[in-house]
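Can't attach files on this board, so I'm pasting raw text. These are the components:
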Amino acid sequence: MAISARALVHGFRAIVGLDHARDDAAAREAAAVDGVVPQVIVAPRSTGEVASAIALAAAEGLAVVPRGSGSAMGQGHAPARADVVLDLTRLDRILEYNPDDLTITLEAGVTGSTLDATLAAPRQWLPVDPPGVATRTVGGLAASNASGPLRARYGTLRDLLLGVRFVQSDGVATWGGSKVVKSVTGYDVPKLMVGSLGTLGVLTELTLRLHARPETERTTLIGLPDARAAQALVTAVLDSALQPTRFEVFDATVLGALGAPSAAAGVGVAIAFGSVEAAVAAQEAELAGLARGVGGTTLASSPSLWSRYAGQWQGAPAATLLTVGSLPARVGETLAAVAQVVDAFPTASLTCGGCAVVGSFRVLVSGGRASVVAEVVGRLRAVVSAWGGTVIVQGAPRDVRASVDPWGPVAADAFALMRAIKDTFDPERRLNPGRFVGGL
Amino acid sequence: MHTFYKGTPDAVALPSSAAQVQAIVRACRARGVPIVPRGSGTGLIGGAMAARGGVMVGLNRMNAILDVDLANRCATVQPGLINLWLTNAVRERGWFFAPDPSSQMVSSIGGNVSTNAGGPHCLKYGITTNHVLGLDIVTGAGDLVHLGSAVSDRPGYDLVGAAVGAEGTFGLVTSVTVRLLHAPDAVKTALASFTSMEAAAEAVSAIIAAGMLPAALEMLDEVMIGAINAGSGADFPATAAAVLLIELDGPLAEVEAQATRAAAICRERGAIDVRVARDDTERALLWKGRKEAAGAVGRLAPTYLLQDAVVPRSKLPVIMRQMGEIARKHNVLLANVFHAGDGNLHPLICYDDRDPAQLERAKAANEELLAAAIALGGSVTGEHGIGYDKAKNLPMQYADADLNFMYRLRRVFDPERLMNPDKLLPSHPACGEGFRPQRPVLPAGTWV
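---
Top answer:
Structure tokens for the assembled complex are below.
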């Protein structure tokens, strides 16, 4: 039933309207995914339109690449095929906000800033704060399981996604989960969708659990002599009743960028407490004692600290951003491993920081040819694999991802199940083919 | 509710290692024999009932704590370990395991994982899935697989997230790595009595709307209060038609400020009595009535059905009214003791099991209640699970395509459908081979 390329765009226009399916050369070039130029860019307005568009793609044997803000397009392998780019930014409606229930149902293309504005008056938030969250889409955040410093207290989208509507590879719209804060009805399909990068279904609608914003949130910035002292502070804080909302440990470069005087310290720590004023003050006092005990110095903090911190990870387009999955008791060793790599590869520059509560780090690699960046990734993997740690390329130029597996190894037993899941739900490899782990 | 579901296994196996579990699954698989996993048997949904005979695998002998790693905030345990034993093992060092189903003194962590169990404190801390980092499972295909770990970020699909709450339909859990939490600085408990359920339900909403996230927010109704007062339990005010138990934990200054505010909110909403515990002894006294609730029901009737549906928290006053109407219509006695903070209902529908007519009325009321909760935008189950009991109710919440997705997911882990058959998914066309959900009809002009 194959139809000509020219007729193809008409087929999609019959679904989304004249203005929202394009196949002109400029649009196609601009939408290229890792150099793979799509035949058509389709911008549906509803789950129904997404379903019809994917059904048409299925009938025509076309591969579909879903896209939100486009900020995670540098994640994963280059796609094996990319015939249709599904632009989901027109799915931008808040469908149902229930402040009393602390839940919201919205379309996948709603951006972080729109969501923030919606939740501001009742003083609620979706406590998910990866770099660039304001312009990213909520669907994209879920598909890539993006997280930021607030995961120290609130977890990730894995813990906040209650229900999800998605379109399967054959065009069937499907719902998983519930719209209430507590449900164990059937399999936990939302968990399967978080972080699946659109390879099992295209997310179109999400129901999220919200939290109340703390009355007061304030941050303490601490300078520490070295990674060993940082580990000591992490261990002390985690073995206390302190309840930070954010707890990041980072290298001297980041510390400098946060306004600390140069050579103030070898390692920096930023800890925020969110609560009523008296509880924030009491926790700050306790923290100051713990910090002094490990040779730490409290430095001047500023209200813009967290936006400046987020800015540290938004490097030039040529930079590579890594996520290093580690452990709370390996914070010091992870920092030391990155420092060793810095010494070994003088042409590359690295900055490093991460959430101490779970041991999840970001490493930004700038400068250095693709082969050097690939070696940096390989070296880091070799070190952290000693304790089961991981290195995942969050975003990188195409040549870097061609030089090194962006996902890293997945154990054979778990991968066999992942492949079986992909085979079950996308046997024709229609959705984001090739981009996920092991080329799924 | 489980008590009227009976099924006898043909054999019972009590393995002591993952290797034995795997050998059992492989032997059953070779002969096409169904397998029913069982922990402590405290489930409320007939999940560990041998609907089709087969081999029941009791995991109670695998009850060791394999590793406690407080520096990495986790522990690895065998599935038969009793929930409370884990907290007991780390409490002196100031740590705890957060999921606390009411059965925690006897229920196993493997069972908690399989049902994705909740508890009073999951309002703040989340249910079991929020605390599981890694799982070893012998799948229905007979493979021993290691999923997840304590490491923070891992590439690939979240198989741990998919497997928690699978009720044994994916396979048998042989090891669990769980998150441990440091105990909070302070705990403060308050008890507020109201003359109507509506007023208490509105107080719940107001407390949450004020930005508080209590560790627990439990409600008892008039019938329950009467039953508890009749026994040796707490002395709730005789005129109380609803009691709210509020527990706050966290930094001392936060807990004190919030307890004061929560108490003020309750008074504003017409509470006739508000008590705030001054120490652990008083705190235990306030919890006493709540903890004796299930036992106190024995004074009302020989047995009961327990409904576990959820409504959006803001719909609590509505569902409470509807519940009263349903009870009158079917002439049954309802007693309520439930997790009001997250809208998780737990009406106990009392009946005498010697009278078949009473059981039928109780069943009818139970189904109508569930339908009312779903109509308000709720969920079929908040923490007990689906099991055998509620499989038939799944289509209330899910369309054919949604059920079919779950059916196909199950087949990935259990290709021969030997793992806990007849549980979790209904016998429904969408849960069978060859079913294709309806695909979108493409608009005219698509084929130009």
